[in-house]
Amino acid sequence: MSRPPGDPPELPEQIREIFERMQWKKARPEKIGVIAAVVVFVVLLVGVGLTTAYTVEPDGQAVVKRFGKVIDIRPPGLHFKLPLGIDRQYFVPTERVLKEEFGFRTVATRDRTIYEKLPMHREESLMLTGDLKVIDVEWVVQYRVDDPDQYLHRVRDREKTIRDISEAVMRRIVGNSLGSAVLTEKRVQVAQMARDEIQEILASFDMGVRIQTLELQDVTPPEPVKPAFNEVNEAEQERERLINEAEKRRNQVIPRAQGEAQQMIEEAEAYRATRVNRALGEAGRFSAILEEYQDAPEVTRRRLYLEMIDDVLPSLGHVYVVEEGATQPIPLLNLGAGGSVLQPMQQGGGQ
Fold this sequence. Notes:
Blueprint: H1 13-52, E1 53-56, E2 61-66, E3 69-74, E4 77-80, E5 87-92, E6 98-102, E7 105-108, E8 114-116, H2 119-125, E9 126-128, E10 134-145, H3 148-153, H4 158-175, H5 179-183, H6 187-204, E11 209-220, H7 226-295, H8 297-312, E12 319-321, E13 330-332, H9 342-350
Antiparallel strand pairs: 1-4, 2-3, 2-5, 6-10, 7-8, 9-10, 10-11, 12-13
């Protein structure tokens, strides 16, 4: 095939294909740049969309930070922030009651609550009391978050701090108490004292936590010594029963004895007053008789004699006079007969 003069010589087919491929490769970097820019823009747009809006759950609040600095605390609901990690939100369950368990762990709570007590848990619950007894104390601390900002930033390991403080306070209170008291009537007092002291320490740390309740779940002696401990408790209960019975008897006998003693004292006082008054009266009567006797001795002497006869004769009973040769005794002063003898004599004398 002839070619016009001045045209470049024709190239073989293989060489032409190589040149075409080389031209396509020259244009490919520009297309790749455009595609990469589009991809970056789309990814950036998606990232902005995903990191701008967020939702706070109903049982808490969100602490929003901008480059690590707290700028706001958001309530539950839908909120917006600066995207791409400029603003970050941290959820804090302020409306949820949190708890820490000591001496046991809750395994399941669906159908029924199942607890687990492992040897590692006994290290938390075994304590020495003030009377050198070992008891097993299981308790639960329930708390809520009052200040999300303080809760996130004041203490690094919040749960461990609460556990360490609770265990230290409980060991100190139990160590200052009698084992029998902690096992029986002092349980409520121990729980209240521990709750107040734990709250005071957490408040000094500015943790933003409020202790709601502290409950002693179970306070028992360790398993190896339970039989001996039960025997001691039975002996103490028997002792208390005997003491109560003795106190009851004492409360019955002592008031009665005191009442009888008081009655005797009052009777003695009355007898004393009677004798003293009688003695004073007789002394006054004797003084009055003495004055009369000094004025009229003979008359006073006769009057005293007649008064004495009047007092003595009625108590003599029957008096009989027996004459010699008489067949019957003659009654004299038959006062018991109501004056039946004297009346005929008076009647005869009158006649």
